[in-house]
């Protein structure tokens, strides 16, 4: 198993595919990168065009619980008494 793993890491280190092959097997290569993390060099007519590798950080982070412990609610936010606001507005127009 260890020999296979070392062999696999050596292959992943220099994994090169043509643009045509990448286009045909794109999702399989993305899964391979996600599982093993090695970069893949994509070539066109034998010349390297792009290197596809694992993302540096998560592309999107859920905002869920992002305000947890940072905000404190004071008072009733559902049944707010706004009668004083309307009295002020009424006096300015009169």
Give the structure's gist in a few sentences.
With 94 residues, the protein is an alpha+beta fold. Helix content is 43%, strand content 16%.
What are its keywords?
YefM-like fold; 94 residues; rod-shaped; three-stranded mixed β-sheet; 3 strands
Write structural notes for this entry:
Helix content is 43%, strand content 16%. It is an alpha+beta fold. The chain has a domain of 51 residues: YefM-like fold, CATH 3.40.1620.10. Strands 1-2-3 form a three-stranded mixed sheet. Strand 2 and strand 3 form a beta hairpin. It is rod-shaped. The termini are far apart. The mean pLDDT is 78.
Radius of gyration of CA atoms, rounded to a whole number? 29 Å
| Share in β-strands | 15-25%
Largest sheet: 3 strands, mixed
CATH class of the domain at 2-52: Alpha Beta
How would you describe the shape? Answer: rod-shaped
The helix/strand series, from N terminus to C terminus, equals: HEHHEEH
Distance between the termini: 87 Å
Q: Which runs of at least 5 residues are low in confidence (pLDDT < 50)? A: none
What is the number of helical segments per DSSP (H or I, 4+ residues)? Answer: 4
In helices, the fraction of residues equals 40-55%
Q: Helix/strand/pairing class, anyone?
A: alpha+beta
CATH superfamily of the domain at 2-52: YefM-like domain
Mean pLDDT: 78
The CATH topology of the domain at 2-52 is: YefM-like fold
What's the architecture of the domain at 2-52, going by CATH?
Answer: 3-Layer(aba) Sandwich
Number of strands: 3
The largest beta-sheet arranges its strands as 1-2-3
